[in-house]
Structure formats: C-alpha cells, structure tokens
Amino acid sequence: MRCMDFSNRFLIMPALSHRTENFTDSVIRRMTRVSLRCNAVNLSQGFPDFAPPAPLLTRLAETASENVHQYSITWGAKNFREALAAKQTHFMGHPVDPEGEIVVTCGSTEAMMAAMMSVVNPGDKVAVFSPFYENYGADAILSGAEPIYVPLRPPEFLFDPRELENAFRQGAKALILCNPSNPCGKVFTRKELECIAALVEKYDAFVITDEVYEHIVYAPYEHTYFASLPGMWDRTLSCSSLSKTYSITGWRLGYVISSPRIIETVKKVHDFLTVGAPAPLQEAAVTGLRFGDDYYRDLQGLYTRKRDMFLAGLDAIGLPHTIPDGAYYILVDISEFGYASDLEFCEALAEKVGVGAVPGSSFFRENVNSYMRLHFAKREETLQAALERLAKIRERMR
Length: 398
Ligand code: GLN
Description:
Largest sheet: 7 strands, mixed
Strand content: 15-25%
Bound molecules: glutamine
Shape: globular
Order of helices and strands: EEHEHHEHEHEHEHEEEHHHEHEEEHH
Helix content: 40-55%
C-alpha cells in the first residue's frame, strides 16, 4: 500500500487488519462532532446535559483523598460488586452472587464486546434484531461473527417468530437483545420474551442482552429481565451500565451478569481487554447503587415528563414520529423533505436548523432512509431550544 508520510514522501507500508476495513467510525458519535462544529443543539448521541445525582458527586470528591487510585480487582471492586449484586437481585428477582456472577467493565460497550468474545468463535452466526444499536455490527465484525438480521417491523416494531426461528435454524449461536430498545423504543413484552426463550432452549443458544435503559420505561410498560425467565439464567449474558441510570455516561461503568461458568470466561476476556474499570469511579458509584426505590421512580417520572413535553412539541410542528415505550429515542419521519440520503439530511439539519440528529440508516439493516433519530435526555430548556429551531425545519430544509 502507498501512503504519504508527513514530509510528503511515498512510503511502502503493510496493510492494516482486514477486520477494521469493514466498518466506519460510529455515525452516532460522529454526529456529536458535527453538532459541536455547527453549534447545534445536540440531540444525536444519547447522553444527558444535566448533572448526576448530587450524592454521587460528593462521594466522587471524597474519593480523591482516599486510597482508591490503583487497580481494583480486575473483575470489579468488591464494594461495587456487592452493592450491584444487591440492587440487581432486587430488580431482576433472581439472586446475583457478587463473587461469581459479575464482571465490572468499562461501560456496557466493553460488556457487550467481552460477552460476544466469550461466546462466539470466528465464523459463528449471531442473530440481531433490526433496527439495532450500531455497536453490535462492529462487535460482530471484531469477534468474527456473522450477523443474521431479524426485522422489527414498524410501526409496532414486532418480530415474526418464524423469522427468528429461521435465524436459529441457520445456526445463530446467540441472539443480541436490546431491551428497552435503542433506537425504536420497544419494550419487549413478557410474552415476546417467552417466545424468544422457547426458541433459545430449542436451538440451544445464548442471549446477550443490552439493558442499559432498564430503568427508563414508561407506564404502563414494565421491564422484564430476560435472564429472570425460567431456565434462562444459564443462557443469558446480561449486559448493562450505570451510564443512563445515574447520568454518568463519562464514568464508563458497565457490567456483565451471568452464571458462574460463563462469568469465568468473561473475566478472562475482560482482564486482557481493559484490566478493569476506573477504581475511584466504582467507589463513588456505590452511593448510587444503594439508592432506594424512590430514586428509580423519580427517574421514570423525570423521563416521562421529558418525553411528553418533547413529543407534544414535535406534534405541534407536525413531524410524524414514533412514541417510545422505553429508552429516550424517537424516530422522526423525514420522507417529506425528499433527501436521497438521510446522512446528508442530518448534516444539513445541523448546519441549517441547528439541531443534531442521527441518520436512521445507521440502525437499520434494511434499506431505510426515511428517519432521523432524536433523543430527549436533555434539560427542558435544551429541548425547548431544539423545538424552537425545529419549528423552522420546513422553511430551511425544503
Ligand atoms: N447509546 C447512545 C446512543 O445510542 C450512545 C452511547 C455511546 O456513544 N457509547 O446514542
């Protein structure tokens, strides 16, 4: 391969790895950079612009002068695992052993990667619902897995059990299950999860969950942990994080919970990938893990108000959109604007309207170009500012 070095000389350089040729950078995270460049209200990459709960910040300041600045135990600080085990036992309705059933990771991003690498051999197939969070595509490529996509069909984002069974029949060794779902806001019902569990049992497969929005679910919907279904604990790698629940996306605290046999393997993968999650941040986050039920009720109330306010604003502008049952994303129909590329649409939106969005095609396997994804994990004034700008979308984008 011919490359130019900094002094403009041509050098002969060896090619880089094939596996990295097959995906681009993350479009979600790229749109944050586009938003910053355009000074747009950034509703693309999903993270809050409000402060984490005050007790976490107080505790974080205290940890500065405590003895927590070296590596924690590689699979997570004892204190953190014990608090997490107690919390998840409470919510999952299944006892979690802090010694043998948890690996603390650098965000759920690492949790998902470590889970994939623990389960999948190069050439194995994995089933992925589409639309899907874009990391799963890269996770599959990095672990050598071949994804088989199973559509969730709008407007209800239902799956056809025959299509899922077909994926297992083709040899899918694992299913990736994002519940509540990013980007479509679907909360899988118990009945749907039981249907999945029956197929997982029948075809002797694993399920890797991404449950980072476990506490952001709108009434009357309720989150069911897949691992808690009968017989599923030993087949499920439950991945989640503290990012969304405590508004600390930058702390990079995630985890895998599973049965001891699986966790032994995840511990090894994690140990050599990252050694461990940041020790002082684990210590500070214990405060959040010990919050009572009222914290999660308030969080749900907060996001319900944001959702209702933002959706009402979009309705007033007349933009058609999905209504999420969980998580904090909305797919807005942009077909009326007539753009051939939703990426170009989102770049123009950031520039001309001043709002950052993610092109819907980043999430769909199918050739779908008619959505942009917005999120509402923002202060009310930020959402208001975005809505004021979006009110001009028709004059500026047509
Ligand atoms: N889950 C967030 C989103 O979909 C982003 C998370 C990340 O960038 N790591 O926007």
